[in-house]
Design a protein that fits this description.
Number of helices of chain A: 12
Oligomer: heterodimer
Structural class of chain A: alpha/beta
Number of helices of chain B: 13
Order of helices and strands of chain A: EHHEEHEHHHHHHHHH
Radius of gyration of chain A: 19 Å
Shape of chain A: globular
Number of strands of chain A: 4
Number of strands of chain B: 16
CATH class of the largest domain in chain A: Alpha Beta
Number of domains of chain B: 2
Largest sheet of chain B: 8 strands, mixed
Helix content of chain A: 25-40%
Strand content of chain B: 15-25%
Radius of gyration of chain B: 23 Å
CATH superfamily of the largest domain in chain A: NADH:ubiquinone oxidoreductase-like, 20kDa subunit
CATH topology of the largest domain in chain A: Rossmann fold
Largest sheet of chain A: 4 strands, parallel
Structural class of chain B: alpha+beta
CATH architecture of the largest domain in chain A: 3-Layer(aba) Sandwich
Strand order of the largest sheet of chain B: 3-2-8-9-10-11-1-12
Chain lengths: 257, 383
């Protein structure tokens, strides 16, 4: 039997929440360590090993020139490359800067902005290198992460579709909060994966998983426009963790700059 | 109101509302798990019911395209609400089911199928449209050369207590589909609520099976008379008049299949979210997908089945990608199957007129309206 598969977990521009979701797999961590050689995961261990790696999970967006170079190195060292979380798959909340001039932000926040070495934009991993799969979410769902790891070992396709959150609501039997309570729920235009968490607690979906496979954002906005949602709110509702994901970006731009 | 003699099948009786608890108790005593309507999460849901007070007494609902509101109407009506998002499909054709699992050890691979004690359900308060839907799913899932063992196990022991409709909701159109508002057969017992909110409040009970008839033996009752029968007819007629929607089913197969390139399909696709809600709330939609899973050690593997929807891209993914890429072709597939090609495949319409797909569409798309729009500008030559 060949040696264990080598796993690496990387961090670019991000909050570490997705890595923490991996570490939150408390009952499974020893089994993961048994099934993989965890070669690089500095949030978990300062012991690191050189590549190549069988699987690289990448948290974070590309927000600096250094990160742009780093993701190319990671790609070269990785047989499979899987961006995890809204930063890595869509540019993250920090991509809000993409809608404005970066200069004034830097001046407003930092006393000596000339020391900054940041790109004008925050962009997803797939804008820089080819990827093999992706895990959406802000943060990712740890069960989905475990599924990707198990599927890789078995050489099968990971479970889970790119359809709407609505399907997850119906599977678990949650009453539709949009229809029964008139809450602005983004579930119909949002990618599944969280298990329809927010509607199960009586709240509308916030769109943490970004656009679903064929998002009809225009129809969704039109419905809420008729029910009194104003243009700034329609812009902002699409401009959160996945603001730079194409479908959400375009819809937000239809309702304001 | 005393049980003076053994009830006979085919007879009708009158129960006072408080005698309903005796009926629920008799059902439980026969070993059934009762599932019925109750208020939860701002809607009528189907869940375990053992007490009359759990029913949505004094509630009513408001239903329109993309709109559902429960409101307090007060009064004593037991069945003042129409169908909610849930259908009985959830209990008979479960959203998720483990089909088989496998364990690997040094000796090889051991396959096992889940062993489920067949649940004996009593569905209480089944609306006639939903009874028709169960019949349709029976024909698809429990019949033929390859019946679904999971469905059949749950269906075989099923007891159904119908609640005929004496009012209709804003998205109801069972009268157009010939499935209601009164069930003619296929039930164990059928209740019709008479004169709610008055001193005469009562339930007419029709017996449809030996099992149903036996249950009445321990329930205080009296034989139904002409006034009760007349009022049940009247109440049913009022419900027909209240139907919020109607669907013209004349030549509907020819009409829809002759208009596959009608511009209305592109128009509805601009509104359709392709979210899949209509198919999952539909009590006859039965499509499923299969998923394989396993553990990190590669010792355990399993295959599960879960509800799927023809509105997802994955539904038609073949070599090279999905077949129905456009929302237009997905909506058209769903509606033509439901209203037209279901006849070719299963010998009936796939629609029972419950209105769930209209109410629970987040943007209120209405298949009766879409069908009428296509009919109004029928593109077939010579029309």
């Amino acid at each position: 039997m060949p040696g264990k598969k080598r796993l690496a977990v990387w961090k670019l521009a991000s909050c570490d929440g997705c890595q923490l979701s991996l570490l939150d797999l408390e009952d499974e961590l020893l089994r993961i360590a048994g099934a993989f050689e965890i070669a690089y995961f500095v949030e978990a261990s300062s012991a690191t090993a050189e590549g190549p790696y069988d699987l690289s999970l990448v948290e974070g967006s590309i927000a600096t020139a250094h990160q742009a170079a780093r993701i190319r190195e990671i790609r070269r060292e990785s047989r499979l490359l899987v961006p995890i979380g809204a930063c890595a798959t869509a540019g993250g909340i920090q991509a809000l800067r993409n809608f404005r001039d970066f200069g004034p932000f830097a001046t407003a926040v930092y006393p000596r902005p000339e020391q900054l070495d940041a790109l004008e934009t925050s962009t997803p991993v797939a804008a820089h290198v080819p990827i093999d799969f992706e895990l959406r979410g802000c943060p990712i769902n740890k069960r989905q992460a475990l599924e990707v790891l198990s599927a890789l070992l078995a050489g099968r396709t990971p479970k889970g579709g790119s359809h709407s959150v609505c399907i997850e609501c119906k599977l678990r039997g949650t009453v539709c909060v949009m229809v029964a309570r008139q809450l602005p729920c983004m579930g119909p235009v949002t990618h599944a994966g969280c298990g329809a968490l927010c509607p199960a607690y009586g709240r509308g979906c916030y769109g943490c998983y970004g656009p679903m496979e064929t998002p009809n954002t225009g129809s969704w906005s039109g419905w809420w426009q008729q029910r009194g949602m104003d243009e700034p709110d329609l812009r902002d509702v699409f401009r959160t963790f996945n603001a730079w994901a194409e479908a959400f970006r375009e819809e937000s731009e239809r309702h304001g700059s | 109101m005393d049980a003076v003699s053994e009830p006979a099948r085919g007879e009708s009786f009158v129960l006072e509302p408080r005698a309903l608890q005796a009926l629920l108790d008799a059902i439980v005593a026969e070993g059934y798990q009762i599932r019925g309507p109750l208020v939860r999460d701002h809607a009528v849901c189907l869940d375990e019911v053992t007490r009359v007070e759990q029913l949505p007494v004094g509630w009513t609902d408001e239903q329109e395209g993309g709109h559902y509101r429960l409101t307090r109407r007060g009064g004593s009506a037991l069945f003042g609400c129409g169908v909610g998002q849930d259908s009985w499909k959830r209990l008979l054709h479960r959203p998720l089911a483990l089909l088989w699992s496998a364990e690997r050890d040094d000796g090889g691979l051991a396959l096992s199928e889940p062993h489920e004690e067949p649940a004996r359900f009593a569905f209480f308060g089944v609306r006639p449209c939903d009874l028709a839907a169960i019949n349709i799913q029976d024909g698809i899932l429990a019949a033929g050369r390859y019946p679904d063992p999971f469905y059949r196990a749950r269906r075989q022991g099923l007891l159904t207590v119908v609640a005929n409709c004496t009012s209709a909701g804003g998205t109801c159109f069972c009268a157009s589909m010939g499935t209601g508002p009164r069930a003619e057969s296929g039930f164990d017992l059928a209740l019709t609520e008479l004169w709610p909110d008055t001193a005469n409040h009562a339930l007419l009970v029709e017996t449809g099976s030996d099992a149903g008839t036996r249950l009445l033996a321990a329930v205080p009752r009296r034989p139904a008379g002409d006034p009760e029968r007349r009022e049940a007819d009247e109440a049913t007629r009022r419900a027909v008049e209240q139907m919020g929607r109607r669907l013209d089913t004349s030549d509907i197969h020819g009409m829809l299949m002759g208009n596959l390139e009608h511009p209305r399909w592109a128009e509805v696709a601009r509104r359709c979210l392709a979210c899949g809600n209509c198919t999952l709330v539909c009590p006859t939609c039965f499509c499923t997908n299969f998923e394989d899973g396993g553990d990190l050690e590669l010792r355990h593997a399993e295959r599960t089945r879960r509800w799927d929807s023809c509105f997802t891209l994955g539904f038609t993914r073949l070599h090279g990608g999905p077949v129905r890429r456009k929302i237009r072709s997905r909506y058209r597939q769903w509606m033509t199957h439901k209203l037209a090609t279901w006849f070719d495949q299963f010998g009936t319409s796939g629609c029972v007129g419950c209105g769930r797909c209209i109410t629970w569409c987040p943007v209120g798309i209405d298949l009766t309206e879409e069908s009428a729009a296509i009919r109004a500008s029928d593109g077939r030559s010579g029309r």
